[in-house]
Design a protein that fits this description.
The structure is a single chain. This protein has 582 residues and is α+β, with helices and mostly antiparallel strands. It is built from 19 helices and 17 strands. The strands form four sheets. It has a six-stranded antiparallel beta sheet with strand order 2-1-4-5-6-7, covered by helices on one side. A six-stranded mixed beta sheet has the order 8-14-15-3-16-17. Helix 6 runs antiparallel to helix 14 (347-393) and helix 8 (211-222) packs antiparallel against helix 12. It is elongated, with a radius of gyration of 46 Å.
Length: 582
Amino acid sequence: MELRLRGLGVIEDATLELGPGFTAITGETGAGKTMLLTGLGLLLGGRADATAVRRGSERADVDGRFRVDPDGKAARRAVEAGAELDDDSSLVVSRAVAAGDAAGRSRSFLGGRSVPVSVLGELAEDLVAVHGQADQRGLLRPAVQRKVLDRYAGPEAAAALSAYASVFAELAAVRAELDEVTTRRRERMQEADLLRLGLTEIGAVGPASGEDAALRTVIDRLGHVDLLTRAASGAHETLAGADDATAVDALGLLGAARRALEEAQGRDQTLDDLAVRLSEATYLVADVAADLASYAAATEADPSGLERAQQRLAELAGLTRKYAPDVDGVIAWAERAAARLAELDGDDDRVEQLTTRHRELLATLAHRAGALSAVRTTAGQRLERAVAAELAALAMPQASLVVAVEQRPDDRGLEVGGRRVAFGPHGVDEVELLLVAHAGAAPRPLHRGASGGELSRLMLAIEVVLAGTDPVPTFVFDEVDAGVGGAAAVEVGRRLAMLARTAQVLVVTHLPQVAAFADAHLVVARDDDDRTATTTVSRVDGEDRLYELSRMLGGMADSDLGRGHAQELLTAAADSKAAARA
């Protein structure tokens, strides 16, 4: 893994070339070690904070290069996001945070492609595992302790929990529907009665699509019979004449005009064409006159028909006032109401189906809860043994961890193993980690069972054990050795060195006993001038490393005694690692 940070906090421009094995990062308090982890956190999808941008810089940039398995999960997810791996199977991740952006917005890049920051968060689980003091505090919470146990239990617990969770989700949905059907039974019956009443009323009227518009047309015609007859008769008389032979009519005039043209027929084609058109007009007017006569003769007053149409329209109006603006809307309402009524009338059958399914799901859930509890119990016993071995190596040979996997009784709970217990989305187990500080001591909760130094060692033991279950290539430990000193600090360094034999380990520490075990040693130094502070990161070897370890030994950097002590630490660490490899 390689990191480059620019414009981040006190860091103007720093590059960390992190090789395999154990790399220690040391430096004075406030030198900027935290900024290194902040930059790493940004690459892993952490929250962007514009206040972290260095004063005078337009933005903060963090670039990282991670070596990944080209056939692994991280590589596949990166390719799905459009990224490309370098020739050496490394993945380049970048993050840029603009200064002055109160919302903390940023831009993220993966393999040269812009991606949402959430993609970086997804990759983080397969690239780096970060363990710090915040994780120690989190381990004091029961919910986190359960997650710790499940994580240690591995794929078997994940599969058991997934199987349980799927049934639990279906059970919750069935229970909600069953409660809705039964608790609202009265309201649903009232709704069914109203729907049934409406369907009966609509069925009695029997409306047809578009009937209301057709009735309005009929009523408008029957209500104006006299007017329509007078209009048709008057128009007919104008076109065809009345019984009075002296009256002038349109057909007579047209006939006279046609006869006048016949005298000149054959003398001019244009006039002959006009004569043809006049003849056609005469025929058309004659047809219209005949139709007007027929219409006038057929149009008769029908008071009873008018009354029937008005009464029918009034019946339809009664429906449109209640159910929809028009008859088509009323018919559509009736169709929806019939479907809803069928659903409501099937409540009894639905209740029976849901009740049966509820019983089946409870039985399945109880079985899967028992299987999950068995996995957790077995994993808890393994975790106890693994942590006990780590504690012994950390100068706490009489201390031990107790992983309590228990169920809380509940008369209305799930029946598991012949008794009813409380259950939830994560199973029926209440997981608690307890510490036995020494032989004969009673198990006590972590936050009350150890001193600060003992708690730090216990947490480190748990972290080291959990780290062995994380399928990631890089582990970062941020001052998890706080509160530890002396011989215990040497053992902490030894345990981290052993972990580094199979993974890349990055440790921020203030302990020279821990730093002495590192394969590479980086020093973070801060230079304060009149305007701003600047942090540099450099690798130290030989005399420079002796100087740094001497400084860490209580400010003994310039003393022969301090340098001699530092050399002893390096020699002892080298001998210890050589013996472990042998």
